[in-house]
Each structure stands twice: as structure tokens, then as C-alpha cells.
Amino acid sequence: MCVASREGIGSPKIVYFMTVDKVKFRKPVGPGDVVEYHVKKIKKRGSMWWYACEAKVSGIKVAEAELSAMLVDG
């Protein structure tokens, strides 16, 4: 989404994050931990996009959520 908002094709796009659902914090994360974010597109309908997201530290899932966003002309 963020890359799409900066593409040079056509007019600039603005990303509006709409919802954050099914959030689960599984383990605490502390200073010095390296957090890897894994995001997979679930579906797209019109200008709406839905994603499944995971956060991992050393390969262990520490959080997960589903989010939706809308991409509009800026």
C-alpha cells in the first residue's frame, strides 16, 4: 500500500487505514528485539484492500492482526 501510494503512474495516491481486527498480542517484545513484519494480501475490492499481518521475533510469532485500507487519489 505504501509503495502504491508513491508510484509515479497517474496521480499520487493517499492510503487511509480503515480497520484493525482480530488483534492478538502473543508474547512481549523488549528493547533490542528485532521485529519482522509479514503481511499478506487477503483480498481487494475496488479501492479497498485487506491484509493478514504477523509480527515475529527470532521466528516466533509475537502478534497478529487483520487490517484494511483504502487507496484514493490525492
From TrEMBL:
Q: Which domain of life is it from?
A: Bacteria
Q: Which Gene3D superfamilies match?
A: Hotdog Thioesterase
Enzyme Commission numbers on file: 4.2.1.59
Q: Which Pfam families match?
A: FabA
Sorted UniProt keywords: Lyase
Q: Name one GO molecular function term.
A: (3R)-hydroxyacyl-[acyl-carrier-protein] dehydratase activity
Q: Which InterPro entries match?
A: FabA_FabZ, HotDog_dom_sf
Q: What class of enzyme is it?
A: lyase
Q: Output this protein's name.
A: 3-hydroxyacyl-[acyl-carrier-protein] dehydratase FabZ
Q: Which organism is it from?
A: Methylobrevis pamukkalensis
**Lineage from the top down?**
Bacteria, Pseudomonadati, Pseudomonadota, Alphaproteobacteria, Hyphomicrobiales
Supply the gene name: fabZ_2
